[in-house]
Amino acid sequence: VAYNGGVEIELGQTITLQTGQRVLQESPDQPLNQNNPYDPEQPETIADPQPRNYTVVGIMERSDLEPRWSPGYTAITARSETNPGVDPVVYVKLKHSGQRPQEDFPQLQIKLYPAAGVNNNVLRFRGPFWENSYFAMVASAATLTLFIIITGSVFLIYNAFAISLTERSRQFGILASVGATSRQKFWCVVQEGLMIALAAIPLGVLAGICGMAVTLRVINPMLQSLEFLSADVPFHTVVSFPAVALTVLCSIVMIVLACWLPALKAARMTPIQAIRQPQKVKLKRRHRFFSIAAGKLWGVEGELAVKNIQRSGRKAGLTILSLAVSLILFTTVTSVMTMMIQAVGMTSQDELADAWVTDYSSHSIIEEKPSFTQLRQLTSVAGTQRITQVYAAVHTQNLDLDDYWSGIGEEYPALLFAVDDETYARILAENQISEAMMADPANGAIPGILFNRYRAQITENGKKRYADVPFLKSMPETLKISIGDAGEMLTIKPMALASDMDLYSSEIVYGGNLAVLIPVSNLNTLLTEAKGSRSYSDKLYLRAVPGQQETMIQQIDEIGKQNLTHSFSWYSPVQNQREDKTLLTIVSIFIYGFITLICMICLVNVINTISTNIGLRRKEFAMLRSVGMDEKKFNRMIRLESLFYGLGAAAIGIPVSLYLITLLHYNLMQGSFWFSFTMPWPMMLGGVAVLMLMVMTMMSYATRKVRKENIIETLKEEE
Asked: What sequence ranges are listed for the domain ABC3 transporter permease C-terminal (predicted)?
C-alpha cells in the first residue's frame, strides 16, 4: 500500500473504510471482484457503502490470494457472527479425496453447494486426476518410460541367458543323456531366472526407493523456491504398496519373458546336437562375397574379422542386436529430452533486461529524472537504456500487410519507441542504415525505423506454434498514426525496415503492436503536435553485472522506498526467470537420471555381451596365434571386428530410432502446441561413435586376458 499506493499506515492507527460491493456505474447489477482490475476509463462505485472502523494490529507482505492486477490489497480481520456481511468463501479439506474425483465430486457438489469448485492443483499432487487430458499426458509418459525400461531390461537378460545357453549347451546335452525330460530342462532355465529375480528384485526396489529419497532431498529446496508451490508443503518420499507391487510384477514378467526362448531352446536340445554342435559353423555361398571384399579393403585382418562374425552366427546376431537396442534407447530418450526443452522454451518469453523502473514524478522526457540518475550510478548496473513508449494507433489502409494480419480492421495498436541519440545511432549501424537516410523528410513527416518482426502464436488445424511473423510485406511510403483522445493524425516516414534491434524492452518483439523506433528529439515534436491526453510510459531498463542481479534488485528497492509515491514503480523478471530455470533444472534432473539409468543398462548389456562372446572364442584366438598372427595384426583384427559390430548396430538402430522419434514427435503434437521436427543427426552420429569406441574398448579389455593364456593348454581344453 505504501509502495504502490503512496499511503502510509502505522501500527495502532484507526482507519475508516467504505465496505460494500464494487460495481460499474454503467452496470450496477454486475459486481466486480479482485480478479477485475481497476480501469480508469470505466468509472466504478461501491454499492450500498457502509463505513467501518478498523484498528491496524499488524502489517504483512502482499498475499498470494490476490493477483498482481487486483485493484485492492488484502486485509485480514475477524469475521463477525452477528453481521457476516457478504457471502463468505469457504475452503473445505476432505479426509479422503478418493481416486475417482470425476465421479465423486459432482455428487459432493450437489450435496454441499452446486457452485463449489475443485482445487485441481491439490488433486494433481495427491494422485487423482480431474482432467482427462492431464491424466492422458501423465499416463502416456509413464507408459513410454516403462516400455523403454522393460525393453532394455528384457534384451539385457535375454542376451545373458542366450549366450549362457550357448556356452552350456554340452551340459544340457549331458542332462538329456542321463534321462532329463524337455520339461525338466525348460523349468531348469526358468527357475534359474526366478532365483535371480528373488535376489535382484528386493535390491532393485530398495535401490529405487533410496534413489528417489536422495533425489527429492536434493531438489526439495528447488521445489520450495517456486512461487506457485507453497514452502510449507515439502515433498517427501512415500512408498506406495501398489507401485511396489506393480514394479515387482513387471520385473517378474520381464525376467520370465527374457528367459522363455532360451528355455525352449534348451528343452529341445538333444544329446547328439549338444555333442556335434551343428549350429556353430553355418556359412552360405553369399557370405563369401563379404569376406572377400573385406580382405581386399583391409587385408587378411579384415577378412578374418568378417569370417569371425559370420561363423559366430547367433552369438554375433545377439551382440549386434544388443548394441542396436542400446543405440535406440539412448537416442530415443535423449530426443525426448530435447523435445521437452524445446516445448518449454516455446512458452517462455526472453526478457532482455533484469529490471525496469517507471517514474512519473516529471512529465519531461528529455530531462534526466533524479531516480534515474541514482540508478545509473549503481555499481551493480552494467548498462541502462531509457525508452519512452508512446501508445498509438496506426491506420492500416493502403498498407501491404502480411497474410497473418488480415482482418485486423482499419486501426491497429502501435508502439513508438523513443531512445537517446547514441542508442539510435548504434541501431542504425547494426542494421546497416546510414544516418543520411534518416534525415528529416519533407512535408513535416517524422522519420522512423519500422520493426518488421513479431513473435506470434500461430494456430493451424487446432495446433499452436510460435513463429516470427512480419507485419508488412513491403515498406510503405508513410504511416498514419493517431495519438491521444483527440485522435489527430500524424505522419511518420518509415526510412528503413529492421528485423533486429538491441533494445532492452521485450515489448518490441512480444508486445503484439506495430513497433516504430524514433529518436527522443523527434518524440518531443510528436507529443507537442498531439493534442489531448496522451498515453505513454517512460521507463529506465537496467542490466545487472553478471552475478549481481540480487544486489541490483535490493538497491532498486531501497531507492523505491525513498520515493514512496504513486509515480515510482519497478519490476524485475529475474524471479520468474529463476523459477523457469529451476523448473527446467528439476525436469532435467529426472530426465538425465533416467538417461543415466538407460546408459547403465546399455553399458551392462554391451559389457556382458562382448565379454561372454570373447570368452567363448578362446580356442579360436589361440589357433590364430598358433599359426603366427602377431600382436599388431591381432589388434587390427579386433578393431575391425568392433567396427563391423558398430556398423551393423547402426544399420539397425538408426532407422528404428528415426521411426520411434518421429512417432514420439507425432504423439507430442497431438496436444496444444506444435514445433518443427529436426533430424537428430549429431546425436545419432555421436551415439554410434561412442558405441564403437565402447565396443572397441571392451573387446580390447576382454582379449587382454586371452592373450596371456598358454596356446597349447587352451587348444587342449574341451568346450
From this structure: 146-271, 594-711
DSSP-assigned letter for residue 80 = P
What per-residue confidence (pLDDT) applies to 3? 53
The reported pLDDT for the residue numbered 366 is 66
Main-chain phi, psi angles of 133, to 5 degrees: -65, -40
DSSP E strand stretches across 56-128: none
- Residue 448 vs residues 1, 283, 424, 476, 605: alpha-carbon distances, Å: 40, 79, 10, 12, 65
CB atoms within 10 A of CB 473: 11
Best CA proximity match to 386, nearest among 376, 399, 378: 376
Ordered DSSP codes for 595-614: HHHHHHHHHHHHHHHHHHHH
Q: Amino acid identity, residue 75? A: A
Q: Are 93 and 116 in contact (CB under 8 A)?
A: no
User: What is each CA distance from 631 to 610, 682, 700, in whole angstroms?
Assistant: 20, 35, 12
713: amino acid identity, one letter: E
Distances (CA, A) of 272 to 50, 173, 262, 385: 104, 7, 18, 88
- What are the beta bridge partners of residue 459? 464
Which distant-in-sequence residues (6+ apart) come within 8 Å of 607 by Cβ? 698
pLDDT digits (tens, 9 = 90+) for 427-449: 777 777 776 666 555 566 777 88
Rounded Cα distance between 620 and 644, Å, is 18
Check: CB of residue 397 under 8 Å from CB of residue 545. Answer: no
Residue 80 banded pLDDT, cuts 50, 70, 90: low
Measured between alpha carbons, how far is 36 from 42 in angstroms, rounded to an integer? 12
Give the model confidence (pLDDT) of 619-647 as tens digits: 777 777 777 777 788 788 888 888 888 88
- For the chain, what percentages of helix, strand and coil (3-state, to nearest 5) are there? 55, 15, 30
The model's pLDDT over 369-388, given as tens digits with 9 standing for 90+, comes to 888 888 888 989 888 888 88
Q: pLDDT-based confidence at 533, cuts 50/70/90?
A: very low
| Nearest CA-CA partner of 404 in 449, 349, 347, 467 | 467
Per-residue pLDDT, averaged over 572-593, amounts to 75
Of the candidates 566, 711, 578, 429, the one whose C-alpha atom is nearest the C-alpha of residue 3 is 566
With a pLDDT cut of 90, the percent of the chain lying above it is 0
Place of cell 502489517: 59
What are the grid coordinates assigned to 123, written together? Answer: 488433486
0.70 cut: is pTM over it? Answer: no
CA 160-164-166 angle, 5° bins: 125
Question: Grid coordinates representing 39?
Answer: 480501469
Cβ-Cβ contacts under 8 Å for 56 (sequence gap 6 or more): 9, 10, 11, 12, 13, 14, 15
Helix (H) or strand (E) holding 158: helix 132-167
d(C-alpha 127, C-alpha 139), whole Å: 12
